[in-house]
Amino acid sequence: MSLAEDMGLSWFDGPIPARTGLGLKPDHYADILESPAKVGWFEVHPENYMGAGGPPHHYLSRIRESYPLSLHGVGLSIGAAAPLNRDHLERLKGLVERYQPALFSEHLAWSTHDDVFLNDLLPLPYTEETFAHVAGHVGEVQETVGRQLLLENPSTYVAFENNDMSEIEFLGQLAAQTGCGLLLDVNNVHVSATNHAFDAEAYIDTFPIEHVGEIHLAGFAETRDEAGAPVLIDAHDRRVADRVWALYERTIKRTGPRPTLIEWDNDIPEWAILVREAQRADQIIEKRRTNHAAID
Amino acid sequence: MPRLTELQDAFADAIVNVEHDVPEAITSHSSPKPRERFNIYRNNVYSSLIDVLSARFPVAERLVGEEFFRAMARMFIEESPPRSPMLLVYGDAFPSFLTEFEHAQDVPYLPDIARLEWARHQAYHAADCAPLTAGELATVPSDQSARLVFEPHPSLALVRSPFPIVSIWQTNTADDEVKPVSLSEGGQDALIVRPQLEVETYKISGGEAGFVAALNEGANLASAAQAALEESADFALDKTLAQLLAIGALAGYQVSR
Question: How far is B44 from B12, CA to CA, in rounded Å?
Fold first, then answer.
């Protein structure tokens, strides 16, 4: 029996199984090495593995021996009007070559301005001008790294006055023009739908799913603005909300089984809680698989 | 609609300068001037960077308290924001900021504690290297030993202080209840190294510190020992060398001509 079969991955859809993965945190290195095979794959922020050596590379190398990996960048600032940071791009390329990730993704956002790194995923107006910048940058990334990039739909708190197109149109055209894939963050859809009073289900129903290579799920925080309108914050610090699970089920019905990540980056819980969240997503994927097989 | 570059100028400016109003081009369905919503971005930027510094300088934070530390870290970020998305390199200027920070002058050892913590952070991410062993060194003929030039381990760092920084760092890290440390203990020198996976912090003598400082500058064994003896007449070369090998502080050697 191969390692993949041993891990229950006999239905590989490619280099990464269409089941649930977890964000890899130093808090859990030991748990993962002691009790393997509870999740299908791991995702890391490459920025945390850009040091020369030490425990991060030691543990990532060991875990990579047994699991597929996804690199999910947070620092490339693809939506900036300014040129991409070539040093950062070269570091990403080096990590892709070293760890051979199955998936490689970034955000439809910007985070660097005048060389200052603002460490947040800042929103973009969906104009023709923005599209030209982003499409150019995505092409440059894919050319340099030699890999398809998945671009993630953002969660946003403010809107812009003059968009030329919707977010879905922007992402769909981008994938068609650059050949990039899309990372559909279902929590971000719920967060942005609440924040901008649009219909999350309609967004899922019209999303260009043929480009979706990965799905994200996460927990959000709640607040209100000065007008009393609810505002959700993409906090990654708690369980996935029931409304987001429902939206995820709706998504999986359309996309079919897809690699799905539980993102939990702050107030990180014990390993067993993360595994339970992953199992919940796996059940939804499995149900879709079974139902689909029954229809066939 | 302003051009993207102008919009991002205004957006970034309003994040960094909280007294500036939110950019003209933004809106929301509930409020045409969404100041509260814009504040989420301001808060995300600063609180995430403060969290980075808090994780990197936990003893410095403990010494001044969380509230004070976060306010101080924010002022540092305003003065020296990160210039790279690789946040692993962020915080090297924090110790010298603390030296100048007027509201922390009553904690005079704070900058050196931060230097020690920064050295530990760098050691954690330093290049991996199998340490030099005593067995490997034993092959050097004795008539060449004075001309040995050691290569320090890539993770090796020395932090010298007029304050008892190792005692302060230790009790704030390892003890459930912090033990009082008297500043009359005098200065301490810390040696930081990560031979395998664990970052170690050792308190070493002034002579040993002088020796390591000279090795770090590329001195050969004879000149390093001379420098150490000038610092402290008690310096014992054989014992020090054996200890440095035992803790994995050296990576290799050459014999200079």
Answer: 13
Asked whether the predicted pLDDT for residue A12 surpasses 60, the reply is: no
Contact B124 A52 (CB under 8 A): no
Indicate if B147 and B95 belong to the same structural domain.
no
Verify that B7 and B103 share a domain, yes or no.
yes
From chain A, pick out residues whose CB is under 8 angstroms from the CB of B40.
Answer: 157, 223, 231, 233
pLDDT reported for residue A124: 98
Does residue B112 fall inside a structural domain? no
Mark which residues 75-94 of B lie under 8 Å from A by CB. Answer: 81-88
- Residues pairing with B160 in the sheet: B189
B contacts of A57 (beta carbons < 8 Å) = 128
Nearest chain A residue to B81 by CA: give it.
Answer: A116
Q: Are the beta carbons of B202 and B189 closer than 8 angstroms?
A: no
Please tell me the total count of domains within chain A.
1
Q: Which residue of chain A comes nearest to B10, CA vs CA?
A: A113
Strand ranges inside chain A, DSSP E: 20-23, 41-44, 69-72, 103-107, 110-113, 116-122, 150-152, 159-160, 181-185, 212-218, 221-224, 230-233, 260-263
Q: Which residues of B touch A226 (CB under 8 A)?
A: 31, 34-36
| B203 domain-assigned | yes
B73 within a domain of the structure (yes/no): yes
Last residue in a domain, options B76, B107, B138: B107
- Provide CB contacts within 8 A for B152, sequence distance 6+: B212, B215, B216, B249, B250, B251
Model confidence pLDDT, tens digit, residues A19-69: 999 999 999 998 899 887 679 999 999 999 999 999 999 999 999 999 999
DSSP state for residue B19 in the 8-state scheme = T
Report yes or no on B185 lying in a domain: yes
The answer to whether A156 and A196 are in contact (CB under 8 A) is yes
Q: A125 and B11 in contact by Cβ < 8 A?
A: no
Q: Is the pLDDT of residue B1 over 80?
A: no
Q: Are residues B41 and B4 in the same domain?
A: yes
Domain containing A119 — which CATH number? 3.20.20.150
pLDDT interval class at A231 (50, 70, 90): very high
Segment A63-115, tens digit of pLDDT: 999 999 999 999 999 999 999 999 999 999 999 999 999 999 999 999 999 99
Range of the domain at A285: 3-295
The complex's ipTM works out to: 0.94
Q: How far is B112 from chain A (nearest CA, A)?
A: 24
Structure tokens at A105: 């993704």
Q: Which among A76, A122, A227 has CB closest to B30?
A: A227
Q: Which residue of A has its CA nearest to B199?
A: A54
**Pair B137, B37 in one domain:** no
As a whole number, mean pLDDT of residues B18-42 equals: 95
Q: Which residue range(s) make up the domain with B189? A: 127-257
Shortest Cα–Cα distance, A32 to chain B (Å):
17
- Closest in A54, A88, A125 to B86, CB measured: A88
* Chain B nearest-CA residue for A230: B30
Contact B76, B97 (CB under 8 A): yes
